[in-house]
Design a protein that fits this description.
Two copies of one chain form a homodimer. Chain A is α+β, with helices and mostly antiparallel strands. Chain A is about 30% helix and about 25% strand. Chain A has two domains: about 30-145, PurM-like, N-terminal domain (60s Ribosomal Protein L30, Chain: A, 2-Layer Sandwich); about 155-320, Alpha-Beta Complex (Phosphoribosyl-aminoimidazole Synthetase, Chain A, domain 2). Chain A is built from eight helices and 13 strands.
Chain lengths: ~325, ~325
């Protein structure tokens, strides 16, 4: 049996110091002296975002909680047009967690941070007793630099704009659900979990009129678009035929009575762009390895229309806010 | 029975939106539009720090987990000579938590953030099932602005320097332990939990030669000073007679076989200053409402000496790193 996390690993003494140096600093890089806060170069405009990750199981096809924790926060910065620069990681560990498991999670964080171009500058570890937390929870907080002329906002969408999505929706939520519950379904589906700052930068470059970007995580595409409708006082008409949804996601969600429009993505972005820049944005997304499955999926319309799905038969189904959880602990 | 947290409150849908607006934004302030990241003015040098808080019980004499979560992170920024500016808050809530309890915690965060001069710019809420987390855990991450000419470091201490502490040690850890365990001990002791940026700024002003500051949280004064010894390759001689320790802390730790030198403070700072600025730093601390109990407690000496306590009888007791926990879940 391998080594496990003990309460002592969280108490700031010698055991804590060993865990920090042997796991965290080994993967994430060691400063010459550990201070109370990192002091780093800044910029005139900052983007700041925070997220905690409680996904169960912590390992799933296409990723683990460490990779997810980096992508989730880095992507929130990127959606505001920021270049992600700094990341903090705070771990809450359950007594008894296998050290090997933690090591794999931290290794994935390091690899994903490198891929995303962010530096992990600060961290924290707490250990709580058995049954006081479920395995490992991670908080990441990110700081990015925002160029002076970039002002994206959920409140900036205008009637006539087009809505793009960078690839198939629902992959992450479905992959995690299948990993957790099984249901006897065999599937080769993997989470879409990936950092998106490079893809976002490409969109911003070819579509300077870009209104806003969002990554449709909890609540999926429909919930995210509803937020845009609300913030911009507009409606959005989605074309069912245009929505990229994988066969495996359709099959699994059909079987379980879930709507893929509400299932979380962790590696897709939504962009709302002026009509005349939509084709350029689409072409740029498709030319990027993280956006090959991109599509124009809808159009912004005048209020009082809200979010509507145009079905193949010419029907229109209103998409409303779900009260709560389709799938708990998906991120 | 009052309202309680449900899994739905964490899933990004309508229930989440209500919780965010009725509890978090009501206390912490609402931006016109909720974006994926806050975009805020920056500065050339930033301090960044993160901490998760898992204190049990969440309410204790002198504070609660919300007040503690703001103080802990703001103080880490202040110890680097930064002016704390922005704070993020991420909550992990257990299904069944009373909404009234959460409301009190968030209200305390808002009040403490105002006292500390920081703006809460981003947040996150996750809800997990009963037994998957113990009540409420909070992560805060802070960003501060660091003046160009300030370069404090744990590695900057030099033989001859003086070590100051801003008030009685061990109050926080002892107060939390008594609130949790009881032991039948009646005590009027309260946690020292308070934001320290204003006190730190005063010290920096009167003692421009300041080497470093630290807030002795987990592991207490002894553990923190051991870190300074290590980082600066020096020793520190503490005077037992000079150490400010409250009667109630002595009594409770004596009874329980704990050493107050290793018990957490959450509202005290340690400053290491050149000998010729020590009296000015002490006078400035004592003149400040957060530093009335300040004392000069030790001196930096040449290595290979490590941390040593000079007792009243002329004896010398080496203080070593504890392996692990005296008191788990104290912050």
């Amino acid at each position: 049996m391998g080594a496990r996390i003990l309460l002592d690993h969280g108490e700031g003494g010698a055991a804590s110091a060993r865990l920090v140096s042997e796991v965290f600093l080994r993967w994430l890089g060691a400063p010459p002296v550990l201070e109370d806060a990192a002091v780093v170069p800044g910029a005139p405009r900052l983007a700041i975002s925070t997220d905690s990750f409680v996904v169960r199981p912590p390992f799933f096809p296409g990723g683990n909680i460490g990779k997810l924790a980096v992508c989730g926060t880095v992507n929130d910065l990127a959606m505001m047009g920021a270049t992600p620069r700094y990341l903090t990681c705070a771990f809450i560990l359950e007594e008894g967690l296998e050290l090997d498991e933690l090591d794999k999670i931290v290794a994935a964080m390091a690899a994903t941070a490198a891929e995303a171009g962010v530096t992990v500058v600060a961290g924290d570890t707490k250990v709580v007793g058995r049954g006081e937390v479920d395995g490992v929870f991670i908080n990441t907080t990110g700081v990015g630099f925002v160029p002076q002329d970039v002002t994206l906002s959920a409140g900036a969408c205008q009637p006539g704009d087009r809505v793009l999505v960078s690839g198939p929706i629902g992959d992450h939520g479905t992959a995690v659900m299948l990993a957790r519950e099984g249901f006897g379904i065999q599937s080769d589906l993997v989470s879409c979990c990936q950092p998106l700052a490079d893809l976002a930068a490409v969109v911003l470059e070819v579509a300077p009129g870009l209104r806003c970007m969002r990554d449709p995580t909890r609540g999926g595409l429909a919930t995210t678009l509803l937020e845009l409708c609300e913030a911009s006082s507009v409606g959005i008409v989605l074309s069912e035929a245009a929505l990229p949804i994988r066969r495996q996601v359709r099959a699994a969600t059909d079987l379980l009575g879930l709507d893929p429009l509400y299932v979380a993505c962790e590696g897709r972005l939504i962009a709302v762009v002026p009509d005349h820049q939509a084709d350029a944005a689409l072409a740029a997304m498709r030319a990027h390895p993280r956006g090959v499955g991109a599509a124009i999926v809808g159009a912004v319309v005048e209020a009082p229309a809200k979010l509507v799905l145009e079905t193949g038969m010419g029907g229109r189904r209103p998409l409303v806010a779900l009260e709560g959880a389709q799938l708990p602990r998906i991120c």
